Amino acid sequence: MPLASLSTPALADALIVDPFYLAISADFAHDMAQRKAVLASYFAYSMGEAERTGRCLTLDDPALGAAAWLLPRDDAADATESAAKRAFLADALGPLGHGNYHRIVDFMSARAPAVVPAGAWYLSILGIAPAAQRRGLGARLLAPTLAEADAAGVPCFLETFTPPSVPFYERLGFRREAAHREPVTDTEYLVMCRPPAKG
Prior knowledge:
Aminopeptidase, alpha+beta, single chain, globular, 6-stranded mixed sheet
């Protein structure tokens, strides 16, 4: 079993309140255990995608959380990954959540290029088990990839629906670049970018 898969329950527990994840698991709103299981499956897939085409990081105890980064990929790799993800989502999510996923992602994808630098690395997922939060674990998870991006002279970006996370990201050098109200969740989210730190 890949170590990252041990992180999926923590990710589900940490991110279950995020409007995006609530929307994509909407078919299971009546059953919290099933909802978390669906999200854990989604996170397991996402960790695998990050291992293949980005960076997937866990803590020494992977059950405490994980981070997934997606890096730019060539057209062939993107087509392969996109087709595989579409098939996974159609099978894993209910019809309402599946539709919500595509409407939200389409909305966000159309707006990101206006503020995200070309070639930026994307912090797709960061989650720490609720009981382990506020111990510096999130910063520890992100440090290796941020250092790698700095060494390569590459910017990074993320999108967040959770305002309490913004000061944390700002401490790591991310800055607010745009805010949009996403219509499916009727919630504002921020696009945050981080230029590479200079030597």
